[in-house]
Amino acid sequence: MTTEALILDVDGTLADTEEAHRQSFNTAFEQMQLGWQWSAPTYRRLLAITGGKERIAAFIEEAQLPPAQRKALLARVPEIHALKTHVYTSTAREGGIALRTGVERLLDEARAAGLRLAIASTTTAANIDALLQAAWGARGLELFDVIACGDQVRHKKPAPDIYQLAMDALGLPPERCIAFEDSANGLASARAAGLWTVVTPTYWTEGSDFRGAGLLLPHLGDVQQPIAGEPGGQLQRAAWLGVQELQALACARDADRVQALYH
Questions:
Q1: Residues whose CB falls within 8 Å of the CB of residue 72, separated by 6 or more in sequence, listed in order
Q2: What confidence score (pLDDT) does residue 257 get?
Q3: Which of 126, 181, 205, 211 has the maximum number of C-beta atoms within 10 A of its C-beta?
Q4: pLDDT higher than 90, residue 144
Q5: pLDDT of residue 263
Q6: Catalytic residue check, 108
């Protein structure tokens, strides 16, 4: 089947946002006088848990606290997370977060080729809106046909819910879509939804188990920043991932599926 849509994660995939998220958490903790400080290694470990509120709750549960104190802190999780979101969106709107290499180029190519674009992220709508407007201005929201965010589904990644929601809104089956992710949880979510997936890890996710990825690259690449060892490694056309290469990979994927039916 012909690929008709690209479905992209946001945090770590469109932009390496995690350091801004970590600093925003710490600012919120400081303003609320909680006495917490998440180091980079601590935050990297917590990223195994999908969702900001869920990370805060897990951090509280890990602490050896009296039951009454733990219960009181857990009740404040929505308040803590709301302040963190305010801090983060302010940072994003001020242009403090850059898109990852090759993202803008690939999305422009996809649009020019007639592909539809969608977002499937477990972050909040406010975080997505702030990043898109900072990166693309007024056309940020118009660039994507569908924006599916975490508050719209019951189960977050690695459950497939968010990708199923995006595909339902697109009106497309998984065979006509390609997913883009940066994390093991994201890959598991996309694969559970039946999607062939391109994975581009960051510092926060590198070294994770990405078995099952259709394509694993350090980034999407650009003329100004080509992917080392390409073409000739995983890519054959250029040292960056282009739409024509994606279409070729999709054709190969479909050929493999057809062959599997008869063997």
A1: none
A2: 52
A3: 181
A4: yes
A5: 42
A6: no
Helix (H, G, I), strand (E, B) or coil at 255: helix
Mean pLDDT of 202-220: 95
Give yes or no for a contact between 67 and 173, defined as CB atoms under 8 angstroms apart: no
H/E stretch holding 129 = helix 125-136
Q: For the chain, what is the radius of gyration of the CA atoms?
A: 19
Query: Is residue 161 flagged as an active site residue?
Result: no
Q: Pick from 221, 212, 206, 192: which is nearest to 253 by CA?
A: 212
Domain 18-93 has CATH 1.10.150.240: yes
What is the strand order of the sheet 116-120 is part of? 146-148, 116-120, 5-8, 177-181, 196-199, 215-216
Structure tokens at 97: 């977060």
The reply to whether 5-16+98-261 and 18-93 are identical in fold is no
Q: Per-domain residue ranges for the chain?
A: 5-16+98-261, 18-93
User: Helix, strand or coil for residue 199?
Assistant: strand
pLDDT in tens, 221-256: 999 999 999 999 999 999 999 999 998 887 776 555
| Total-model pTM | 0.88
φ/ψ of 8, rounded to 5, equals -120, 135
Q: Which CATH architecture has domain 5-16+98-261?
A: 3-Layer(aba) Sandwich (3.40)
- Active-site residue identified among 9, 16, 161, 182: 9
Q: Is 116 helix (H, G, I), strand (E, B) or coil?
A: strand
